[in-house]
Structures are given as structure tokens and as C-alpha cells.
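re the bet — no i am not wrong, look at it urself. input seq straight from the record:
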Amino acid sequence: MKLNKLIMIGAVAIVSNAAQANNSIEDKLSQSVSKTATLTQQTKAEFGAYKVEPALQLVPASIADTKNVVAAKGAMSVVTGNSSDIVSKGSVVRNTLTNELTTLTGNIIVLLAKDADASAVAAQAGMRVVSVFPGTDLVVFGAIPGNDLVDAFNSLNKSSLALSSKVEVTDTLFTAQ
């Protein structure tokens, strides 16, 4: 008899504690949670997922003024400086997806249409041929100093001789964990 009463008292205590815990969880869940939403200004990318940052420059970290440094990239520093209208090799771009800064290599990888001449397409875009991959229609064009890389990219995209093009950047694909 005493054992039955003891078991019943233990069961009632466990069930009542579980019920109280369930009620407190429901009370916490039913309370309204206020969240503040932050809006970020979405910028339109010039090519792919990258937007040119004309006010930023890449300089050696040893000569960079510390008050103008925006980011560090190894032995180089990204600093605010004179803005340039010409996008060329070494120009700083921002990845609009990850918001990271990187630089341009000055090359554009192009998939040419069948029987298109790489030299003719390069001359039309104001670029030079860096390399041609035999047996494929892939060509790497390099920027001529003084020519705008974004203008060349846009003219290649509008051309019927180029099926696809991609501006090459020095982006970090993987980072060590």
C-alpha cells in the first residue's frame, strides 16, 4: 500500500512539473519578439557579381597611410584615394554577394562563336590576345593600358562573335578553416 502511494505521488510530481514546464515554454513562445530589420543598399554590379570601386586603390602596405586604409590584402592595402574613370588591371572591385574587396587581373575570358577569329574580336574590343586554347573556342584577352575593361567587356557581350565572356578577378575561392 505504501509503495503504491509512493509511486502515485512520484508520478503526480513528475507530471505536474512537466505541465508547468510546458506552460512556461508556451508563455515564452507567445510573447511577441521585436526584431529590427536593417536594410542595406543593393548596388548593381557592372559585370557578374562585381561592382567597380573607383575611389579605392591598391597600394603596398608599407607606404599606405593608416588613416586611409579600408582593408588589408596580404602585403597590400586597399586605401581611399583619387578616383579613376578608367577600369584596368589592378582596379579594386567589390563582390556584391560577399561584400569583399578584390582586384582585377586585366584579362577577359571569352567563348567565341564557331569560326570566329580571335585577333579580329580582340581588335574590335580594343584588347590583345593573351592566349588561345587549341581545339576549343576559348580565348583570353588582355587589356591594353589606357583602355577601359568594362567598356571592352560590354562590347564583347554585344558582339555576335563572342557567345560568353567573364572578367577575371583575383578573388579568394576557399579559405582555410
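see?? The radius of gyration is 30 Å. told u. also The mean pLDDT is 81. so pay up
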